[in-house]
Amino acid sequence: MKGQRTERLIRTAARFLTCPSKQLSLTSLAEDFLVSKTVISDDVAIIDEALSREGMGGISVDRGRTGGASFVPRMAAGVKDTLLKEIMDLLNCEDRFLPGGLVYYSDILFNPHYALRLGYAMASLFSETRPDVVMTSEVKGIPLAIFTAHAMGIPLAVCRFRNRASDGSAVTVHYPTKNGDVKAMYMGTKQLGKGKRVLIVDDFMRGGSTAAGMLLVAKEFGAEVAGTGIFMVSSDPEVKAVSSYKALLRLDGVEKRQPKVALWE
To answer: Taking every annotated instance into account, which residue ranges of this chain make up the domain Bacterial purine repressor N-terminal (predicted)?
Structure first.
């Protein structure tokens, strides 16, 4: 249906934002709105500029035969810092710090108001790695991981700590914890394929044993690890079970019993 340009811009932007990192055909858009492809291309350029000014990413256009375009979330540094400082202020309340060097953040990660934007921030850290699947472990890492996968336009695979009949057949790996115990981790065989590029996302890292377990799962499936992203990493211990990772926040002062959440640098 042909309409006013303002309406067309809003509806086109809505289609991009609803399915980030998914390519939309410019030809199909032109046919839907009964305008030429040149007009749609001009609209896309306006939307791209507006999203860039908001610091949330931009529109990537394929000039090849497909003539498609997609919204690629890339959170600007200033927007990301504002978000993380808002979350830091919430987390640095004294009543959030728990015995054992832990901090309560479940209400933040399970709140879509924060989790969606955190997913965009995490996806921005790995926008050049082009993963096929996001992998996490149950339970608290799931909200961040699902919104990261949403931003990247890819599926989520979840490692579980006990196998369920509803998951079908599963691959099992055993990994050591920081206490010297050995735990099992399960991944359904239908969730991950050989040769896939995997982005590992988790909520918290202290010694890194859970992330190391997911690395073993990826290896067992013959998958390639594109990167590891963590919501919050404890400064102690300094040496982790994984050698390479990126994070959004850092938890300091645990050993001195003066915990404080800071930006990851």
So the answer is: 4-73
Rounded to 5 degrees, φ, ψ at 16 are -65, -45
Low-confidence ranges of the chain (pLDDT < 70): 1-3, 64-67
Sorted by sequence, the CB contacts under 8 Å of residue 253 that are 6+ apart come out as 235, 259, 260
202-231 pLDDT per residue, tens: 999 999 999 999 999 999 999 999 999 999
DSSP letter (8 states) at residue 160: B
Cα–Cα dist 162/174, whole Å: 12
CB burial string 107-126: b at 16+ within 10 A, e below: ebbeeeebbbbbbbbbbbbb
What is the C-alpha separation between 109 and 117, in angstroms, rounded?
10
Q: Are residues 88 and 51 in the same domain?
A: no
Closest CA to 248 of 138, 126, 121: 121
Residues 65 and 81 placed together within one structural domain of the fold: no
What is the distance between the alpha carbons of residues 163 and 185, in angstroms, rounded to a whole number? 8
Among candidates 72, 43, 40, which has minimal Cα distance to 59? Answer: 72
Say if pTM beats, i.e. exceeds, 0.85.
Answer: yes
CATH number of the domain residue 170 falls in? 3.40.50.2020
Each residue's pLDDT tens digit, 224-237: 999 999 999 999 88
Range of the domain at 61: 5-73
| Residue 234, phi then psi, degrees to nearest 5 | -80, 135
Cβ contacts of 113 within 8 Å, gap of 6 or more: none
Residue type, 76: A
What letter represents residue 68's amino acid? G
